[in-house]
């Protein structure tokens, strides 16, 4: 059984198919280019709904034309 608090290595991120995600200090971060503000807003809403279901809430930053996520 794996430890849920164990930190992933950069190699494990790549192996898991989490391209675009980076280790920044103790956080995982990713930036998604959305091209349009409305598309970014839709992405934030979808992430928010999933976060509520999982009871795990990332930091989200919506700017034109991208969304940044920090876990």
TrEMBL record:
Reaction equations catalysed: (4aS,6R)-4a-hydroxy-L-erythro-5,6,7,8-tetrahydrobiopterin = (6R)-L-erythro-6,7-dihydrobiopterin + H2O
Keywords in alphabetical order: Lyase
Family: Belongs to the pterin-4-alpha-carbinolamine dehydratase family.
Protein name as it appears in the record: Putative pterin-4-alpha-carbinolamine dehydratase
SUPFAM superfamilies to which the protein is assigned, alphabetical: PCD-like
EC number: 4.2.1.96
InterPro entries in alphabetical order: PCD_sf (IPR036428), Pterin_deHydtase (IPR001533)
Coiled coil: none
PANTHER family in the record: PTERIN-4-ALPHA-CARBINOLAMINE DEHYDRATASE
Source lineage: Bacteria, Bacillati, Actinomycetota, Actinomycetes, Micrococcales
Transmembrane segments: none
């Amino acid at each position: 059984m794996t430890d849920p608090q164990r930190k992933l290595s950069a190699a494990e991120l790549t192996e898991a198919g989490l391209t675009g995600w980076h280790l920044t200090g103790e956080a995982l971060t990713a930036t998604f280019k959305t091209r349009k503000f409305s598309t970014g807003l839709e992405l934030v809403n979808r992430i928010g709904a999933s976060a509520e279901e999982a009871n795990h809430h990332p930091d989200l930053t919506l700017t034109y034309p991208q969304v940044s996520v920090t876990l």
